[in-house]
Amino acid sequence: MRLVKRKTHKMKNQKELKLISCEEALERMFEYIDGALAGKTHSEFEKHIETCRGCLGKVDFQLKLKKRLAGVRSTPVSKKLTGRLSNILKSQSL
Question: What is the pLDDT of residue 75?
């Protein structure tokens, strides 16, 4: 699976974009993956991952993981198990 290409926000003057560090990119990564980055911040992030293979790999991995986890269904916990766990926790707190 390849990195999902997102629409880039074209900036009139690409020189206006700040070069961000890997640390800054990683701080913004989950916002990018969730589609919450916009405008200049989004463009700066994409400019960084276009040139940084390490960060691109991390973004690609997280996108794959998010897609995989979206397909996982949760299983409800039975009342019996919930009661047993509750009793264990109560006995441990004495």
Answer: 85
| Rounded Cα–Cα distance for residues 88 and 65 (Å) | 34
Decide: residue 59, CB within 10 A, 0-12 exposed, 13-18 middle, 19+ buried. buried
Helix (H, G, I), strand (E, B) or coil at 55: helix
User: CA nearest 32: which of 9, 70, 59, 54?
Assistant: 59
Interval 26-60: pLDDT, tens: 999 999 999 999 999 999 999 999 999 999 999 99
Q: Residue ranges per domain, the chain?
A: 14-92
Torsion of CA 15, 3, 25, 16, to 10 degrees: 10
SS3 content of the chain, % helix, strand, coil (to 5): 65, 0, 35
Instruction: Express each pLDDT in 51-84 by its tens digit.
Output: 999 999 999 999 999 999 998 888 888 999 999 9
Q: What is the pLDDT of residue 72?
A: 87
